[in-house]
Amino acid sequence: xxxxGKGLGFFYMPTTASIVSIPLSSLDTEFVxxxxxxxxxxxxxxxxxxxxVAEPTKLAAALDFTIDPASGKYRTEDPAKLASRIxxxxxxxxxxxxxxxxxxxxxxRRAQLAKxxxxxxxxxxxxxxxxxxxxxxxxxxxxxxPEVAKALEADRKExxxxxxxxxxxxxxxxxxxxxxxxxxSEDGPTSTIECDxxxxxxxxxxxxxxxxxxxxxxxxxxxEFSR
Length: 227
Prior knowledge:
With 227 residues, the protein is an alpha+beta fold. The chain has 2 domains: 19-144, Tetrahydropterin Synthase, Chain A (2-Layer Sandwich), CATH 3.30.479.30; 150-225, no CATH class. The protein is 43% helix and 17% strand. β2 (27-36) and β3 form a beta hairpin. It is rod-shaped, with a radius of gyration of 34 Å.
């Protein structure tokens, strides 16, 4: 090697010179791959890793970055392989993290997984042996299998609806108690009210209907839905 450095200008003999061009700016590579969680569920992980060449001499010794002086293009496919090597390092790091966690934890910990993957990638000897420094890892998405996603969505909807039902029932009970106090009766009337199936609140107040029918409670809010 005769000369090396950043942004050199020089004369050379086209027939005998060998010119190596290594990018020194930050580079990005995107990745998408599947991994299995600790509860044997497959997730698709998509993201991007940023890296830079910290030691050009090491990289030039490991991969062929020689360019054709006439065209300015690389003579081999080695430069294109660099991005895939970094992607494999990130995949290995994420594999270790994902296989330790159940599905729901993986879906909720995207930022933590990216941080852990970056730490593991920096500890990996592969990039260092090439003179590469991994700068950052971003996870743009973690998706379960379509059928699993539908099941999770249905389960979440049921939980939300159950909470809404409980809140509705509690509000109505408060309203009934307030109405009873306004009428000045602590025990309520002794007459019974039979609610039919058309009552939109029948699913929420089965126990309360029983008390109404036994004369132990009053159902003024539901009167219009009663026979």
